[in-house]
Amino acid sequence: MSLKTLIAGAAVAATLATTAAASATDAAATANPLLAPWSGPYGGVPPFDQAKVEHLKPALEAGMAEQLAEIDRITANPEAPTFENTIAAMERAGRTLDRVRTVYGIFSSTLNDEAVQAVEREMAPKLAAFSDQITQNEKLFERIAAMYETREKSGLTPEQQRLTWLYYTNFVRAGAKLDAAAKKRLSEINQQLASLYTKFSQNVLADENNEQLVIENEADLAGLPESARTGAAQVAESRVHKGKWVIANTRSSVEPFLTYSERRDLREKVWRMFVNRGDNGGATDNNAIITEILQLRAERARLLGYETHAHWRLENTMAKNPQRAMALMEAVWTPAVARVREEVADMQAIADKEGAGIRIEPWDYRYYAEKVRKAKYDLDETEITPYMQLENLREGMFYMAQQLFGFHFKPVDPSKVSVYHPDVRVWEVNDPKGNLVGLWYFDPYARKGKRSGAWMNAYRPQERFDGDVKTIVSNNSNFVKGKPGEPVLISWKDAETLFHEFGHALHGLSSNVNYPSVSGTRVARDYVEFPSQVLEHWLATPEILNRYALHYQTGKPIPQALVDKIMNADKFNQGFDTVEYLSSALIDMKLHLAGAQAIDPDKFERETLGSLGMPSEIVMRHRTPQFMHVFSSDGYSAGYYSYLWSDTLTADAWEAFTEAGGPWDRAVAKRLIDNVFSVGNTIDPADGYRAFRGRDAGIDALMRKRGFPVPAAAEPAAAKSK
Ligand SMILES: [Zn+2]
Q1: Comparing C-alpha atoms, which of 242, 275, 240, 231 is closest to residue 478?
Q2: Angle (nearest 5°) at CA 453 between 451 and 459
Q3: What's the 504 CA to ligand 1 centre distance in angstroms?
Q4: Active-site residue, 268 included
Q5: Active-site entry in 70, 501, 529, 605
Q6: Per-residue DSSP letter, 421
């Protein structure tokens, strides 16, 4: 951090200091490492070696103040609005806050403790109010609107026109055209929602951190493979139960237990613990919070002139409206439920044959599904796992990236780039000519304070309009860390997730645009999962498996016979997977189509699932009280359908490869990169897809992929763009 930047940071804050409180903040800001432009190699990297929780609040406040000052300069400009002095100026503004929010986001999602939570509770409503302060700035909106009106005749490039459209649309959708009273109410709602989202997330995290199954007796691990035993022992050690075993209340601990444990009573116990997160009464119960969120969202949608929150959220997506999203979900739901009936019948037959004397319940599904897989496909998941070494598969992903994208990954010397936790590693990514493409951070292991699941982040988007800025992306997951020096073995599904998140990273790394707001993964919600899902397919290619799926003891590649069995079983359990997911997606959409009525989440969930004909043997992948996608932000609200929507594109895009020269067909890969991966949001996604495929995607490929009957009169309308 240079002295110059210190002074600049302080100067900006000082001009805005109007109260004693703000002045006090300035003093802190002066010494705040989060405010300086990132220094070091690669065009600067996040200052994780200096970042501390106590820096977050003052840095956020100074960043907001700086951005408001920048916007004041834009609106005070006496010249008529131009792209350069308005839209481009907006793209330039808020850089300090962007950097601070990156670090803040990392603390929130991966280093979350009491101190971070206190900052979140305080800052969430302030950040919401700040955002409204910008979209409700009338002078600013006038300039943006003027640009929007003349965008087609101002000599703008197509990217500039789309960016102008995006600014205008986002402002209008956020209430820029409302009267003063409505704007005031809107801002109140947004601040309340921000606080409720924070509370919701913290409650889920509390139940995940605080509840666990402690196993004292090794005999109670009956059925668990070695990797799950080691994992449980490691979790126990990290939670002061050394010498025992702990099943943490997170998906990565719970799912292997449900799959393998022979102890039906313990499976039920673990299952209940997991599906009741956020639904346990007491201080961490989310039900009342959900009711309030839904009512505020409904009120906001009406204020903004939309029928429901779902209509508002879907307006600028590929689906365009809830009806088209529902049509796709319903087209898949019925065959998926029919498949579940077949799967349950197969499982029940095995249970009966074994004389178990049970009826299949939700805590039995994964366990008996494994037995069916063995019986029907002679495939045992525990046979696969010894070949699924995390670090080898990561190398496999790099190989894929090199073959398809021309990207080369090289580990970064840890002394050159600081990380926020010793488990995090960094790679630099170069193109075939050796030019820097960006950085890839990898944070693979579960730990307390890290949110569950897997995700990708862009710490810094690619851009070029003011100088060539390289992107920094990260992949995060929750693999259970093994003993030191021992390889981490993961399931086939986890390996698919690894490739999925890496697909998001490659989407970010491939970005080749001018403006950061339309860069990388900043695309429509129901389109963003397409690049990531499509990359999942490469895991199962012989080129990856033969080279990288190596046995952790013998080093031998996975036998072809086992690969054949995996391929042969690739439509196995699709009923379960689809219904588990789709029930959550349907509940999400229906909750947000229900309008302003006061909703009791448990009752709504029960009744809606009843009317959908939800199989009693399956529970939603995310029950309402723990549905982070939907209630931790507006993010995937009325948007969980996006995975299915994207999968129609994914399945169809994969067929473009199989119809041509196969997965490694360079011409198809190039079309995919040119029209999808590299363009960000500079073009309409439907146009991008059409340019890649030569037509729109129908539903046929999706149904084939999942092994469901392809409808006689295939219904392309459901997945079509326009
Ligand atoms: Zn994803």
Answers
A1: 231
A2: 70
A3: 7
A4: no
A5: 501
A6: S
